[in-house]
Amino acid sequence: MVLKMSKGFYQRFFYISSSLILWGCASSVNVEVSPTPKPPELIQEKPVNSLGGYFYSNGENAFGPFTQRMVQKCQGLNGGSVCNTQQWPEALFLKAYGQGRCPDGSRLNQILGYCVEGNQALGPFSKELVATCKDADGGDACQSTRWGSSFLYKLIQTKNLFTGRPPQFVLLAFDGSYSLDAWKKSRNFTQSLAKKNILAHFTYFISGVYFVNNEKRNLYKPPGGKGQGRSAIGWGGTPQEINPRLEQLNKAYQEGHEIGSHAVGHFDGSRWSETDWTREFEYFDRFIFDVYKINNLKGSLAFDRSAIQGFRAPELGQSPGLYKTLKKEGFRYDTSKVAAANYWPKLENGVWNFPLASLTTAMTRKNVLSMDYNFYYAHSKAKPNSSHAQRYEEDMFQTYLKYFQSNYSGNRAPVHIGHHFSAWNQGAYWNALFRFAEAVCGKPEVRCVTYSVLADFMDLQTPEQIAIYQKGAFSKLDKQK
């Protein structure tokens, strides 16, 4: 099964080194369909849905691979012994496939350009990749429709003369989701960059209370004995106020931005138990995925629960209970910790640790995290001081540039930037963020992507490879180029 991208998505590309890898390269070249047993030569390509999934058919049967979840659904649909074969009737296949871009039980790895189930990539694979596999003495496995993700990644590296140098990832994220102006301003900014052929996407960590109207606040009983109906940041307003917020949320997702969780009531969970965190995540799922029902609105979200892959704790309030919970709740990564600026991510408690960076400001020489509120506090004790707004903006801009340049010419550790939907000090920090993104996102081998894309990349790295990256033990970019 190959993922066929839309034209807009297909035209995006990703640098592993100085060579180019197309995201979705398998969808625009001739594809060799090679399940076992091999289907008849006369087959046709058919779409699954409008999201880009498609399959191969001889007019009656669809050919594998089939995910484990699809097999389970097949059995529930009384598919019988057919469920264990490599050919299913089309109608059965389509019922078991699901509603997503990838078949149920798998997801798109945007680095590979293929759907993956666990540590396996789902084909069929392009003729070019099959030939590369044979050159690597892959044998009969080259004709299969399931390859190990790491094996496929190595073939892509070989095909593109991989230098061993990682991309410079830049992660730009927002906490918050209330302000319509902030939604529009951030989305419009990335659209303006795209017109300059600069690609950038944000990760939005949203708070559940902003999607519950004031009259329904008693649906929430926060952990830690905070009291029923309480929130540290207010509520969503009226249903009529929530509806346009949902429109912005859907548009952001449809434009390639990522939606993550910032919990519900924005309470400090540093003393919360595993049970507390489990309850908070249950509230989050209910308030977001039942949002139209709760607020008596018409419509639907553009994404489902599987899209929520990452978390950032309010006030960065972590506890051992959080890290006993994240993996079980289906999260792939956490952004609630702090580390050195040149830290390469590692798996901790089964999820990727994507921490904010500890920095020293370029002009005012203050110790801060790579987050706007920390600059706001360091600059003016978290109180407005418009008379120095321009200086604050320049201080943040120069600090971010220094952070970026040190990593870009050093060990290429990902750059993490966290901001809020608040225009503190006359928007100085938003201005600095936008200036920074425009300055760096178009540079060679720089990828301003969502956190899930970074997780896709990290999933393909071995601990040994991460250690090499951490040491910066790879050839550096020729600055003249």
From TrEMBL:
<dbReference type="Pfam" id="PF01522">
    <property type="entry name" value="Polysacc_deac_1"/>
</dbReference>
<dbReference type="GO" id="GO:0005975">
    <property type="term" value="P:carbohydrate metabolic process"/>
</dbReference>
<protein>
    <recommendedName>
        <fullName>NodB homology domain-containing protein</fullName>
    </recommendedName>
</protein>
<feature type="domain" description="NodB homology">
    <location>
        <begin position="166"/>
        <end position="288"/>
    </location>
</feature>
<dbReference type="InterPro" id="IPR052740">
    <property type="entry name" value="CE4"/>
</dbReference>
<dbReference type="GO" id="GO:0016810">
    <property type="term" value="F:hydrolase activity, acting on carbon-nitrogen (but not peptide) bonds"/>
</dbReference>
<dbReference type="InterPro" id="IPR011330">
    <property type="entry name" value="Glyco_hydro/deAcase_b/a-brl"/>
</dbReference>
<dbReference type="InterPro" id="IPR002509">
    <property type="entry name" value="NODB_dom"/>
</dbReference>
